[in-house]
Predict the structure.
Amino acid sequence: MKVAIITGAAGGIGYATVEKFNKEGYSVVAMDILDSDKVTDKFKDMDNLVYVKGNLASGEDRANLVKCALDSFGRIDVLVNVAGVAPKVRNDILEMTEESYDFVMDINTKGTLFLTQLVANQMLKQECEKGIRGYIVNVSSCSAYTSSTSRGEYCISKAGATMITKLFADRLAGEGITVNEICPGIIATGMTEKVKEKYDNLIAGGLVPLGRWGLPEDCANAIYTLSSGMLGYTTGQSIIVDGGMHIQRL
């Protein structure tokens, strides 16, 4: 049975990804910052799942996550870096604080970088199966290439995550490990709930050609496809999951 680590697992895209991989028969090591008793009901019907409480910004917690995966299942076949945060307060880029910048970057970029490094080094110790040692998928954002001046730290953090994808894809291409990312658009999650009215109006006004909010399941399906071997000749790629919002139109 293949083993997947999924961060940000308690809600939104992370939870939908846990559900997808569990349904497909994977053993899952799910990490989030919530206490285990807060997520018991979410995961109670899932077999072969281990929940690990941890903060992606913590090196100790990242190491513990990898240790728990190996102690529980003996190997890691897939890493999905979903965990991410938005700034606690949206401020104009001229008013952005160092505290807010550090909070967002430590999780979205630094945490993603060093967890990927840990898992990649573990995958390199594992034997190739049909030329594959593992799959890594990062969740970036349309904000990696779209300016939002009221949350500049988030845009910068996701642009950094995109470069992390390219760097590891380049380094690991000859090692049987593919590294790709998805760039979600407007997805119905806890992160976007606070600005739902704004995005409802934008979508109604035609911002998204497909005319609806994205769902966490839309992202989970793309993540699984990149981790399944069906796109084995693809690495360093960004798959945009945004209902066509990126299309420039006249």
